[in-house]
């Protein structure tokens, strides 16, 4: 059984809204949250359930707990759908073929996870309104943690964290004409070893990334690799960059 707590928030109603979901699958918790412009509280309540179901990669039995009678009673008791037809249609598609238990809980009445998901939805709505843009997070860790409550930039304090190994992998490709590909792949360009120079540039860029991103911590890199694979059929170069670090924050 997967347990999901959902909630929605709206500043102004209509106004800038936030949604959140806390998902517990066998003790493994996932927190989702995001914002929407020009929305309502009811839309955010339904949207939170949609995003939670979209995130599931199994068809296990699900219990969705919400303090929104609008959401719970519409899905479990057949309340008439007078508005938000687009969201109800999406939710119906996601719910089809699933065993879902819809449970209503009294809001602000001591249910720990209901209180948590309510705070996350409200906080992310406020943060989104401050920065004036739509926000989407898949972690609970301090929504937009590089901004304080007044929306001012700050550097996150990672002093209390334990050092862990972190690995990041980024991929991309460069597509070119057949003639250009042939020249590069055979190493006959007038400018020399283009791929070799590009690898060095990539390594150097990784070493200096923390200097270029505002509020980023110094990151001690233990390994950088830039691999280039040649694709003769598509006339492109597939590039894979791998970076490794051990520290309190990182890649």
Characterise the protein shown here.
This protein is of the alpha+beta class and 251 residues long. It has 2 domains: 136 residues, Nucleotidyltransferase, domain 5 (2-Layer Sandwich), CATH 3.30.420.10; 84 residues, Molybdopterin cofactor biosynthesis C (MoaC) domain (Alpha-Beta Plaits, 2-Layer Sandwich), CATH 3.30.70.640. The strands form 2 sheets. Strands 5-4-1-2-3-6 form a 6-stranded mixed beta sheet, sandwiched between helices. Strands 7-9-8 form a 3-stranded antiparallel beta sheet, covered by helices on one side. A hairpin with a 3-residue loop joins strand 1 and strand 2. Helix 1 runs parallel beside helix 3. The longest helix is centred in the middle third of the chain and has 20 residues. 33% of the residues lie in helices and 32% in strands.
């Amino acid at each position: 059984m997967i347990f999901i707590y959902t909630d929605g928030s709206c500043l102004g109603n209509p106004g800038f809204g936030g949604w959140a979901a806390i998902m517990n699958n066998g003790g493994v918790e996932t927190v989702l949250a995001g914002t929407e412009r020009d929305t309502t509280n009811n839309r955010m309540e339904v949207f939170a359930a949609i995003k939670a179901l979209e995130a599931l990669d199994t068809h296990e039995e699900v219990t969705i707990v919400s303090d929104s009678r609008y959401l719970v009673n519409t899905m479990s008791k057949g309340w008439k759908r007078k508005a938000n037809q687009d969201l109800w249609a999406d939710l119906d598609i996601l719910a089809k073929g699933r065993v879902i238990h819809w449970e209503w809980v009294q809001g602000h009445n001591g249910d720990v996870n209901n209180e948590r998901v309510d705070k996350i939805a409200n906080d992310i709505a406020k943060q989104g309104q401050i920065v004036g843009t739509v926000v989407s997070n898949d972690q609970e860790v301090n929504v937009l943690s590089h901004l304080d409550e007044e929306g001012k930039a700050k550097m996150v304090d990672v002093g209390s964290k334990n050092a862990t190994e972190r690995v990041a992998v980024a991929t991309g490709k460069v597509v070119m004409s057949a003639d250009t590909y042939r020249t590069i792949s055979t190493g006959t360009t007038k400018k020399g070893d283009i791929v070799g120079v590009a690898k060095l540039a990539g390594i150097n860029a990784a070493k200096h990334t923390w200097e270029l991103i505002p509020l980023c911590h110094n990151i001690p890199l233990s390994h950088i690799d830039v691999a280039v694979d040649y694709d003769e059929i598509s006339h492109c170069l597939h590039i894979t960059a791998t970076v490794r670090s051990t520290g309190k924050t990182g890649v």
